[in-house]
Amino acid sequence: MTDPRADVVGCYHVAGKAEFFPARYDELERQAVGMARVLQSFSFAPGSVILTVSSVGEVAQFAAFEKAIQITGHYGTNAEASMFDAGRVESICRQFAPVGVFGVTQATLEGLKMFGHDPERVFSGRTVWARPDAHEGLSRVAGIDLRRIVVLGPAIAFDCGKGGLHFASRDWALAAGDTLKLSSRMPRITPLDGVDTGVEGRVSTMPCACGSRDLTITLGVKA
Ligand SMILES: [Zn+2]
């Protein structure tokens, strides 16, 4: 029988309104197995450092990725996705030389500017998974292996080394509509059904060249 106690209370937003969902670590870590395979497509050297940039309210979305960092034999570190923690992002990049920075937001970029840090000096030579609001700004910065990460309500999708935007499709189903609607496929203490992700896109069932079996999304294309 499933123990209904929650380990964390996750949060996601639908049309700007916060929704909370109690979750268990094993539910979050279950997604990490597929994410690890997506992460391995980058062939980072064993023992590399990966910096995750997220907010406290996003623990349920990012815990699985942080577990995937451990599974693949890398070291994770993190910073807050805010202007005021951008100095920490710069400091970690300078001191720990992460191969990847995951989840950079526009607020991070504004914070770097505020503190007088050049994004090229901070991020050059690294793989950077940018949120949609930071993607354009980072596309103008030289020397970055620029990738995407998209929050899908209580889940995330992120690019593999072959450019496929994967989500944990063993755990989640995405249904087409004006925007993608997300439902849980596996047992959870908070079953979710038809959560509006606010993201326009289409799910592809074509296999990705990276070898991951997690499905991919094509953004901006309706089904
Ligand atoms: Zn892939």
TrEMBL record:
It comes from the Bacteria. This is FIST domain-containing protein. It comes from Sphingomonas olei.
